Amino acid sequence: MLDLLVSPLFQIVALGLAGIVVWHLQGRSRPTARLLVQIAFFAAMTAILFANGISPLKFEPLREGGAMLIAAKTLWWVHLAWASIGFVRIYIVLDGKPREARVLQDLIIAAVYLAVTLSVLAFVFDFAIGTLLATSGVLAIILGLALQSTLNDLFSGLALTLGRPYTIGDWIILADGTEGRVAESTWRSTHILTPANNVAVLPNSFLAKIGLTNVNRPDESHLLVLPLRVKAVHPPSFVVEKMRQAMIGANNITHDPAPAVALKGIDAFAMDIELQFRVRHPSDRIPARNELIDLVYRQCMETGISLALPAASSVFIENIHTDHSLPDPLRELLQDNPIFADLEQDELHKLEVSARLRRYRPGDTFFEGADSASGLLIVRSGAVSVLSDGKEVLRLAPGAIFGQIDGVPLATKYQALTVLEAYEIDGPTLASLFKDHPEIQNNVTRHLSGLTGNGLATGSSREEHVSILRTVRGLLGK
Fold first, then answer.
1. Which residues on neighbouring strands pair with residue 172, listed in sequence order?
2. Which candidate among 8, 96, 187, 240 keeps its CA 20 to 30 Å from the CA of 126?
3. Percent of the chain predicted with pLDDT > 70
4. What does the DSSP 8-state code read for residue 190?
5. Is there a contact between 113 and 168 (Cβ–Cβ < 8 Å)?
6. In what order do the strands lie in the sheet with 199-203?
């Protein structure tokens, strides 16, 4: 028994097994302590081996106690592998790129395990590694041909991981039109959550070949273009300015940088223009485009700009340069607004007669001060900024209604962003209308409450709503 305890091979095996136990007791949360344990036990095992003339780097014929020799050498190679892996896990780090660092670590660890496995076969069991490698090479060729598609996806996934054209959560647009947010990325495929709320699974080899646009870089805002073709009955500078004014009133686009109008071409019948604007997020594209189309339509109706047929259309055009008589704008503005949509024609006529068309310059403010007269303004052309505590909360475009009523916080005011034309309906005219249509009174109250509350018509505080309603009723003498 004593001879067994003093045997170097037994000591190596005992150290190896003890090192494994201590290594597990350290836990994953203490990688540095694990590495020190691995190095200490590996150094002790190495010292015993070489002190007794046992080399783990060459095969020794088995003799009595051969099983103990195999166990000792195998444990030595295992501890060498674990010490190397512990070093890799701690010190192979790419600053700011944890995913790439983990991939690199996994590749190095796989190489360490492969090298240790071949070393054990060669130096412990005396396998002919050359023959094994030659045989495995033939097998690798056969497997490579059979798994060509899978391996292509695998290495493409590695290239995409290291190149980082996108990360989880990015919104990407592929050259074939597929778009969505990256939900998951594996070694073989990438999962994209599309706007239709479906998951598109794309092989990594496909993504590595096709061009893609990452909308999230440098941020999610990106440029959109709305093409237009208008009849050449106005100077181009006039059309550019009116389209610019229409875009200034949009709320679903960004205004820094400012939207632009680009002239693309002109012929005898029409001019081609592009409205270039940016949105904050991909989800804003449809609302922004819808809003701009509505604003452009309103602006064209108010300014006499006519849309033209596509250049490919062949039609007979007569009197293209004759003057266009504009429709009565106030009546159409009132009819298009849900608040006044149910009024009879004679009631609309009364409002038209009493309303006055006002013109303002950029920077002019409305309803400043507690003594401002009550009334409503309906934007005919131009854009208005709604300011609360000095910050812009909303932009108003043609057709929008705003006004001042006692009780509205003084921090809220309206400012013209462009040359502005607006119809003014005074308090007495509104009072007469509200007597016959109390539902319009409630709708106006809710509308103004939404504008002055938070700019998004999502509801104001109960106290402000009650104060505004009390003031409107005061106009009626109630």
1. 180, 214
2. 8
3. 77
4. E
5. no
6. 199-203, 189-193, 179-185, 171-174, 212-214
Q: CA–CA separation, 386 vs 388, rounded Å?
A: 7
Distance, CA of 180 to CA of 175 (rounded, Å): 13
Please state whether the peptide bond connecting residue 327 to the residue before it is cis, i.e. omega within 30 degrees of 0. Answer: no
Instruction: Give the integer Cα–Cα distance in Å for 103 and 154.
Output: 12
- Residue 410 φ/ψ, nearest 5 degrees: -65, -15
Residue 220 forms part of a structural domain: no
The residue among 181, 235, 172 whose CA lies nearest residue 207 is: 172
Between strands 179-185 and 189-193, the pairing is antiparallel
User: Can you state the percent helix, strand and coil of the chain, rounding each to 5?
Assistant: 50, 20, 35
Summarised one tens digit per residue, pLDDT across range 40-72 is: 888 888 888 888 777 777 776 665 556 777 888
Examine residue 310 and state whether it is found in any structural domain, yes or no: no
In which region does residue 54 sit, left (phi positive, over 0), alpha (psi from -120 to 50) or beta (all else)? beta
Give the number of other CB atoms < 10 A from CB of residue 343: 19
Q: Would you tell me how many other CB atoms lie within 10 Å of the CB of residue 433?
A: 20
Q: Output the pTM of the full model.
A: 0.59
CB 226 within 8 A of CB 269: no
Number of domains the chain is built from:
4
CB neighbours of 228 closer than 8 A, spacing ≥ 6? 243, 272, 273, 274, 275, 296, 307
Q: Which of 161, 198, 164, 163 is nearest to 179 (CA)?
A: 198
Residues 128 and 168 in one domain: no
DSSP classification of residue 276:
E
pLDDT at 323: 47
- DSSP letter for 457, please: S
Q: What are the strands of the beta sheet with 270-279, ordered from one edge?
A: 222-231, 270-279, 260-266
Last residue of a domain, one of 143, 174, 190: 143
* Helix, strand, or coil (residue 43): helix
Contact (Cβ atoms closer than 8 angstroms) between residue 189 and residue 161: no
Q: Which string of DSSP letters, residue by residue, matches 338-372?
A: TTTTT--HHHHHHHHHH-EEEEE-TT-EES-STTP
Tokens coding 320? 């293209």
Q: What is the pLDDT of residues 88-99, one digit of tens each?
A: 777 766 555 565
Separation CA 107–CA 109 (nearest Å): 5
Rg (CA), the chain: 39
pLDDT at 275: 96
- Containing structural domain, residue 166: 153-214
